[in-house]
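Memo to structure team: turn this sequence into structure tokens by end of day. - J.P.
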Amino acid sequence: MNGNKSFTVFFLLLFSFFAGTAQKQFKALLVTTTKGWHHESLHYGVIAIKDLAVRNFFDVVLFEDPNSFNDKFLEQFQVVIFLNTTGDIFDSSQQKVMERFIESGKGFVGIHSASDTEYDWDWYTKLVGRMFFIHPAVQTAKLKVFDEKFPGLQGFANGKLWTDEWYEFGPEKISDLHYILGVDETTYNPKADWGAKKAQGMGQMHPLAWYHNYDGGRAFYTALGHLPTNFSDPAFLNHLYAGILWAATGKK
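Reply from structure team:
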């Protein structure tokens, strides 16, 4: 009996060793810096993405030291994820580091207010594709799938009810965006009045998620993710992982 127990313990230790040292699919850097609005959902998003990494066998590192954002540090990563970032978060030297990262064939994922970040950095606005302009009150609306061939959209069948902060975007910053998901404006009130900014909606084509190749690398963006509960919804997590996987590896 003791011999069997010893063998079992040895086997478990050996399994744990190889599982811990096995090569992961890819490595992601998670950036959560805010210099503007701080979303309540940010904390929930960090936990969800860390859980995605465990369940899908990739590594994720939370970006914490601004001074570490340099070419040498980024060599280990295949994708940088901007999770509900806001405002001007990088100085000019860090911006150049990010540009070289994408130029080397790596990936970017922007979640929700990543489009409310770095408006004055022209290269970044093209990386994201479209920048946030305004939004109405949080409401429930129906989703529209534009491209069923892109993975991770199975839980977002046309007409699925979803509650979020429906971003209205400014004009395209680049012309090759591949739209995969949108919202049906006839199912909610898109009007917003912020004084200097007013909105009536974007019309029949109101995109929420898209992807494109850019400057040698890849970029994926989704506007979903305002509410903390979004990050516990399997449909959203599947959508998010599909975007991360594509940005990191080019696989879809």
